[in-house]
Amino acid sequence: MGFGDQHLRLLSGSDKAVTDNPPDELIAEAAALQATGDNAGALQVLTAGHNSYPDDDGILLNIGRIYSGMGDYLNAVLAFQRANQLAPGSLAILIPFSKALSKGGKIEDALTVSEVSVRLAPNSIPALENAGEILFKANRLSDVVKCLERLIALNPDEKRYQADFAQMCQITQRFEKAFVAYLKLWEDDKATPADYAMMGRLAFLSHRSDKAIPYLKKALEMEPTSAPSLMYLGRCYAARGDLKAATSALRRSIAVNPHFLDSYFFLAEIEPFEEGDPAFATLEALKREGNLTLENKGALGFALSRMYHGIAEYDKAFENLKLGNDCTKEAYASLGHPPEPEKLDQYYRLLTTLFSAENRKGLKFKGSESAKPIFIIGMPRSGSTLLEQIMSAHSEISTADERLEMVYIFRDLMTRTGHHSGSAQEAALLSLIDEEGEGIAASYLETLEEEGDATAMIIDKLPQNFELLGLINILFPNAKIIHLRRDPLDVGLSIYSHQYSLDWRYFQDLGDIGFYIRKYRELMAAWKDIIDLPIHEVDYRALVEDPEEVARGVLEFCGQEWQPECLDFHKKPSTVHTASVIQVRNPINKSAIGKWKTYEKHLGPLIQGLEG
Asked: Which of 2, 99, 475, 593 is the most exposed place for a label (fewest CB within 10 A)?
């Protein structure tokens, strides 16, 4: 942020007028002129004052404010910078200083100044509000959420903070927090159909289907022809295992709006469309119209693919699957999120260096003593939901489903140390873990216990936690890690058959999927040499072919006795929100093994990606 001594020239210009009036009188005179719209006159008074009192921070502060009001952010920044040098640590200067930097396009500098203000005054509402605005402009949305959480803690009755917090949690896919935040704003007597529908959707996405259903039913009472509400109602019923009610709701969704594409996709998973069903002609005609958005065209491709697969039209299924993935990949790239193989390589190298044995030895924090967490890791579509359901049928084990908390923890650590690079960032991040590790671990455990049951052990089955085994090793040295492996061709095809969010930007192209699987395998091999935590390996084929033997081994690894109920998991009342919702409602079968052979002629890019 160094601007040298430009401020002397820019602020005073050629006008060397001076004054004998005290600074307070000059500031008051300038304020009176500014109130009449005479900014030039106000600046003239203050410039003369600056020439007479060059070390008065109040005059410089007011000069900066006037320039900011005029949109002259360069001169505003120069004035605030000099004022800050004279009176470091003043919120009255730091807040408008950071605003001027932000409005002048110097976002990184604005972030630095705003972070200083929050560090100096962590309970200052103006400082936190300002920091939140700048963080939002910088697209550091997770940090905006944290700012809003602090603002709510300071002023829990301010509904504006709750509303902003709920909206930001939706954007960052913290659906549970969004749902709870909207509940605090909820006014049943004023709610519209859209309000009820939103609450139902958020409850479903936060894995609270039982709570979602009443909201969705109320939305449908008020607006019976809402295809999205019917679709989410169907998904809620499917998650609870009521497939008859799910089918009915999804068919109603299609009936009220034959162009609402997501309903076809989810219905085809529960009840295959029969050959000759008019739905095929409807969607093919829609595809030929050619005026769909990328998002809708992608949804259409995925829906038709699943429908054609159900009637064994495999070439047509793959053709539409490719359409869905190509459109999704193009949409993500247009948002600035293309696959970046070199960055993935760099990221994995950073992880293994950062959490090396040498770095871990240097930490004072030795981790939580809790042995409660069980992490099921691996590639998506490797059978984690099946294993989770088997294990959570045990009386001492429950599940918290797929938790994103560990991902958020690491992103937060990276963001907070992002102003460093290389070894300096490593040192800063490890220092943060030393300082805050105990609180971080306690917070994660609290979330786990809120979502799981009162059992000795609780499962977190987010597959991508395989990337964060080094961090898990530090926070929970007594955790259990179960690594699920599956034939990479079956995994790759299954991934390609499902639509994923931006977090999985490598999953829309077979070659990219192959590359990602290869890098995942390399990282897992590296972790085995780096971390102290034992990793129990489970092969999906073995799990399906001899579930009792595999389950016994897993339970023994977790220190639990065998219980026969584990093999009757499909009879247990439970709610499943993953893409495996149908598979785990039935006894174990081998139908998914070797499924890739059906599409073998199309999988060349996947094979090449796997081989490198």
From this structure: 2
Give kind and range of the element (H or E) at residue 239.
Answer: helix 227-240
Cβ count near 565 (within 10 Å): 13
Res 451: pLDDT: 85
- CB-based burial of residue 328 (10 Å sphere; 0-12 exposed, 13-18 middle, 19+ buried)? buried
Tell which residue, 97, 147, 157, 96, has the closest CA to residue 125.
Answer: 147
Block residue for tokens 């093999």: 567
Phi and psi at residue 373, to the nearest 5°: -70, 135
Give φ, ψ of 512 to 5 degrees.
-65, -40
Asked if 596 and 490 touch (Cβ cutoff 8 Å), the reply is yes
Q: pLDDT per residue over 228-286, tens digit each?
A: 999 999 999 998 889 999 999 999 999 999 999 999 999 998 888 999 999 999 999 99
> Alpha-carbon distance 358 to 530, whole Å?
9
Helix (H, G, I), strand (E, B) or coil at 366: coil
- C-alpha–C-alpha distance, residues 297 and 286, integer Å: 9
Contact 303, 261 (CB under 8 A): yes
pLDDT in the model for residue 419: 77
CB of 123 within 8 A of CB of 154? Answer: yes
Q: Which of 535, 537, 562 is nearest to 551 (CA)?
A: 562
Pick the closest to residue 166 from 122, 198, 118 (CA basis). Answer: 198
The pLDDT of residue 289? 83
**Is the separation of the CB atoms in 504 and 380 below 8 Å?**
yes
pLDDT score recorded for residue 2? 45
Spatial distance between the Cα atoms of 11 and 492, rounded to a whole number of angstroms: 63
| Burial status of residue 48 (CB atoms within 10 A of its CB: 0-12, 13-18, 19 or more) | buried
Residue 98 backbone dihedrals phi, psi, to 5 degrees? -65, -35
Closest CA to 91 of 66, 63, 121, 67: 121
- Where the chain has pLDDT below 50, the residues are 1-10, 12-14, 579-580, 584-585
Find the helix or strand (DSSP H, E) in which 480 lies. strand 480-485
From residue 339, alpha-carbon distances to 188, 292, 506, 512 in Å are 44, 24, 6, 8
**Paired tokens of 116:** 């200083």
- Residue 588's pLDDT is 64
